[in-house]
Design a protein that fits this description.
The relative contact order is 0.27. The chain has two helices and four strands, in the order E-H-E-H-E-E. By secondary structure, it is α+β, with helices and mostly antiparallel strands. It is globular and about 30 Å long. Strands 2-1-3-4 form a four-stranded mixed β-sheet, covered by helices on one side. The chain has a single domain, classed as 3-Layer(aba) Sandwich (Glutaredoxin), CATH 3.40.30. Belongs to the thioredoxin family. Plant H-type subfamily. Pfam families: Thioredoxin. GO terms for molecular function: protein-disulfide reductase activity.
Length: about 80
């Protein structure tokens, strides 16, 4: 992950119902004006196993935030409700 702009990546799986439910919520979050300076990406874990290994993602959904090429944090499971308000 390059650049100084923050990046949030959603690692998900097509076969997992929680991931399917979170997908639209993640998209809505990415469209909020207060997050206009953040890049949001999704990665299908089944299609990108090497990325999962590299970032040590062992369950889905997993959200990882980066800035300045450094990992800021990881969140497993659902998106925290306070981010959606």
């Amino acid at each position: 992950v390059d650049g100084s702009k923050p990046v949030v990546i959603d690692f998900w799986a097509t076969w997992y119902s929680l991931c399917k439910m979170i997908g639209p919520v993640f998209k809505k979050l990415s469209e909020k004006p207060e997050f206009a300076s953040v890049y949001f990406y999704t990665v299908d874990g089944d299609d990108q196993p090497d990325i999962l290994d590299e970032l040590q993602v062992s369950s889905m959904p997993t959200f990882i935030a980066f800035k300045d090429e450094k990992k800021l944090g990881t969140s497993l499971g659902a998106i925290p409700k306070n981010l959606l308000v």
